Fold:
Amino acid sequence: MIERFINIIISELFRYKYFGYHNTLQMNWLAKINFTVVFQRFGPYRSALLLVVAVALCLYSGYRIGNYYHGHQVKTLGEQKQRLDSLYQQQNNQSRRINTLEVELEVERLANQKSLTTLKEMEISHYKVKKELAFYEKVMAPEKQADGLVIDNIVVLSTESPNHYRFQVVLVQQRLKKRYAKGYVELSFVGSLNNKPKKIKLADISSLTKKELAFSFQYFQLLDGEFTLPKGFVVEQIEVSAILSKSKWQKYHRLEKGYPWLLATNNKTLLPKSLVATSANEKQEK
Structure:
């Protein structure tokens, strides 16, 4: 019975190509073993014991080898997991670093933009200060400029009404020994109307009287008023004339100066803000 059982096991092993050697060894080494001789030599009990020991040895060896490879795989998986965690940590650190750098870059950009804005404001303020200083030099240090009455500048401001404008003229006296300069101002607009050259006087397009255009000052004065241009009239140049009336203390003199037609912003003024009120009060007093 035992011999028959062993032969059945051997035949089945040979039939299914144990351990997967299907196309190579085909269990030739196992076919060379004569189990009948082994069974007859050792007897049924010893042969069965030998078979059990062999099977047990194979099972133990397979268990140990499988356990070894299992431990190796667990160790490898642990190392891979540790490496993956380290890579994730590095990625998080780099992400935080990138976010920090982006915030710092945005802060630097805003600071740079603010610095540029501040620098631009300082340049504008510096220009205004230089302009005011130049005006004060004309008034208080006339030895640096030409002697006598000077038409400092003129500005034209647009209004909400079509073809209706406001103007401002600043006169400055540049004499070492200043006396009151008295006279009046005339304005003329040179341009074209219906494609024909034309010159229009301020008196023809404004309700201002000669008295309202008169000046009397010792240092400077601002004259202003309004006018309405004819429809279709294109202005190219403004001619400003300051006429000193003949009197006991001054001779008759006519000063003329031309300016290109340029519209300024509505909040522009020719005098420094600190002198606008002074000029108005002085004009009312005189």
Notes: Residues 16-27, 143-147, 274-286 have pLDDT under 50 and may be disordered. The radius of gyration is 56 Å.
